[in-house]
Each structure stands twice: as C-alpha cells, then as structure tokens.
Amino acid sequence: MRWLCAFAQVGWWVSCTLYSLGNTAARADDSPYCRRVDAQAESDAALLLWPRLSLQGLRYPSGFDNGPMTNEGFQLRVGLSYSLIDAYRATRLTAASALDCRAHTVLEELQGAYAATTDAPQHSAYQAQAQFLALHRGEVEAVIERARRRLAERVITVMEFNDLLTLSDQLERKAAQAQGQAARLEASMPPPSSHTSGRLVRDLQRLEGEHEAELSSIRKLDAWALRVHGGAIPLADRSLDWFGWVELNYSLGGLFRGSAERRYRQARRDELRTSPDGLPTKLQSLQSEMALQAEQAQSELRVLDKRLGYLRSTAAELESADVALGAHTRDALSLEQLSAESERVFLQTLIESLATERSKQRG
Hints:
Blueprint: H1 2-26, H2 32-49, E1 52-59, E2 74-83, H3 84-135, H4 137-152, H5 158-188, H6 197-220, E3 224-234, E4 240-250, H7 254-274, H8 279-317, H9 324-362
Antiparallel strand pairs: 1-2, 2-3, 3-4
C-alpha cells in the first residue's frame, strides 16, 4: 500500500509541475480568445489531473468468500484511482491550447495585414484627393467672388450664377466625401505589422499544423490506460482493511489508428492551405485582384486625361476673349477642370499605391 501511495504521489507531483509550466505558457497572450481556450483546457485537464473518488457497495452470495465482509454479507469499498496517462494527457491539452492561442494571434495579425493591404490604396487615394481640393479651395472662392461682382453689374444672369454655385458645391461635397472616406478607412485600418504577409502565412500554417499534430498525439493516448487504484474496506469489527492494484491496458485498435491519424493530419494541412475562405488563399488571389483594379484605374485615367485635354484647350481658346461672357465661361471651365484634376489625383495615387502594395506582397 505504501508503494502504491508513493507511486501515485510522485506521478501526481510530476504531472502537476508539467501542467503548471504548460499553463503559464498558455497565458502568455491575454486576448479573450486565448483566455477562453486556456480556461477550457484547464477545465478539461482538471478532470484528468485529479484522482477519481469511488464508493462501492457489494453483496456476495452466502458461502462466497471475497475477503472481509460484514455479518450480513455486504462489502463496502472507498477508494481513489489515479491515471498517470490521463495526467500526462492534461499536460498535452495545455500545450495544445497554447499552440491554438499562438495560431489565433498570428491569424489576427494576418487579418490585419490583409485589411491593410486592401484598404491602404483607397486610403492614400482619398487622402490625396482631399488634400488637392483643400489646396485649391481659395481658387474656388475667388471664382464665386468674381461671379458675384458680375451679377451685381448685371453682366450675367442669376441662373448662370447658380450654375457656378452648383459647381462650387459639388467640389465642396467631393472634398468632404474624400476626407470622410480617408478618415473612415484610417480608423478601420490596423496598426502596421512588423512581419510580411508571406511570413505570417507560413507561421500560421506551421502553428496550425503543430496544433493539429498535438491533438492527434493526444488522441493516440486513448488506446492506453495506466491506473493506480487503492482504498479501504470497513470490517465488521469496525476496523479497516485496504486493497489496491496497478492496471495497464491497451486497446488493439491503436495498432490501426496511426495510419488514419496521418491521413487526417495531411488532409487538415491541405484544407488549411487551399480553403477558399481561408486568408492564405485570399492573399494569394489578392495580387491578381490588385492588378485588375490597377488596370481599371488606368482605363479610367485615360478617359479622364482626354476630358482634361478638352477642358484645357477650350480654356486656352477663351483666353483671348475680353468680354464678361468669356470670363464667366472660363471660370466655369476652371471649376470643372479642378473637379477633373481631383479625380485624376485620386486615380493616379490609387495606381501608385496598388503598385506599392503588390511589391510588398511579392517581397
């Protein structure tokens, strides 16, 4: 009995020490997800780590001798059983939860990198457009002031003055919308990561693979059982006797489980790598998506440059006109030209930002 108790105590102390070390590693990240998986692993490990208390009541037929019994033929047993393999499984559960936590941390960083890659070009383009319109706000105000003087001199009609006001309001709204879009994208963009998307993808796949391998190794332990069981039996004379045994058993199904676990791990790796909803797959297709977006912006830029060419040539032809009508038309053309130039700044910055992000992805 002393040998059994000593064996159980040593095994329990070793497993508790290993569990506490693994549990500390699991708490390295204090995110809600990590706290949840840590608490779940601790909950499952508690049932595996602590001994199991048992209470048995037996009655044997008369004349059947099975050791100490009461005068009525009953036998009561109170005992504790402890599984060293279950204790080891508890430490592996903690290690698995730590890997799960680290993989989730990398996944969140990768999600941030994906969001930054998709939003950064738009943010830069809107920001450049808002800055361009802010720099030329004085020109717009000067055009409206000249139109107000011409209206007072009865040179232009109220309708013509309202046309200029409409063009001015459109520029103001465009500036406000660009500034608002840039602020919204900046607020939703995560802080820049110190790692490239390619490295994050490799780290994520490695950690998820290690996590699945750890879970698979835990399942392999299901075929084994090593238990230490001992307890006390009350006797008729109000004394106690004790019993105990050590049991090691193995399920022969474990001989055929290894190949299935290997196929499972390989299939899981392929699933994580090729899943259409997974970030690694989305990042792989992001290059082609950005290329198509840049090609579309180039097409729009060519159309816009053609329009700007018409506006500039028309404005140049009106430079020789000294009449008030020619001045009014030049002012209207200048407002339309400012609007087109702000769109050109947006498209040009978008194309350059897309090229920068594609270069980062390739790096």
